[in-house]
Amino acid sequence: MKHLVTAAMLAALSCAAHAQVTVKDAWARATVPAAKASGAFMQIESKREARLVAVRSPIANAELHQMSMRDNRMSMAPADAVDLPAGKPVQLAPGGYHVMLMGLTRQLKEGENVPLTLVVETKDGKRENVDVQVPVKPLSYSPPRR
């Protein structure tokens, strides 16, 4: 019995050490039939200081990207990670950090969901996978301003 209690305590401590990430307001942009790329957006909050270090999807090559303005030109490039300060929501949104879905295996249609796995790493190097079902919104969708 003592071993069971110890195992339960270790499991509880192990869970407490994870980032404890929540995702809200996730959405992905629908595509036209021939399109091979889209974007996914969301608000992420971690209870502990962490970083979003990768994203995966079974229907596309998913990467973290960042849009930025340079010399009056908008540019987009892969991002190694997105910092998640403890207790502060971070927006992945059009025009900033976002998930790029490239090489789509099928068209994204309004009303369906895109499966994503977010890989979050805490300061001590432990990784947590967060599975998210991201609803697909119409091509013309604009999220409400906050």
What can you tell me about this protein's structure?
It is built from one helix and ten strands, in the order αββββββββββ. It is mostly beta strands and 146 residues long. It has one domain (2-137): PCu(A)C copper chaperone (Immunoglobulin-like, Sandwich). A hairpin with a 7-residue loop joins strand 1 (21-29) and strand 2. It starts with a helix and ends in a 9-residue tail after the last strand. Residues 1-17 have low confidence and may be disordered.
What Rg is obtained from the alpha carbons, in whole angstroms?
17 Å
DSSP, total strands: 10
**Superfamily (CATH H level) name:** PCu(A)C copper chaperone
Judged by helices, strands and strand pairing, the structural class is mainly beta
The end-to-end distance, rounded to whole angstroms, is 52 Å
Instruction: Please tally the helical runs, counting DSSP H or I stretches of 4 or more residues.
Output: 1
Mean of residue pLDDT?
88
User: What is the helical fraction, as a range of percent?
Assistant: 10-25%
CATH topology: Immunoglobulin-like
List the uncertain runs: 1-17
Main β-sheet description: 10 strands, mixed
Please give the CATH class. Mainly Beta
Signal peptide: 1-19
InterPro entries: LpqE-like, Lxx211020-like, PCuAC_sf
Keywords: Signal
Protein name: Copper chaperone PCu(A)C
Helices and strands in order:
Blueprint: H1 2-17, E1 21-29, E2 37-46, E3 50-56, E4 61-70, E5 73-78, E6 82-84, E7 90-92, E8 97-102, E9 113-122, E10 127-137
Parallel strand pairs: 1-10
Antiparallel strand pairs: 1-2, 2-7, 2-8, 3-6, 3-9, 4-5, 4-8, 9-10
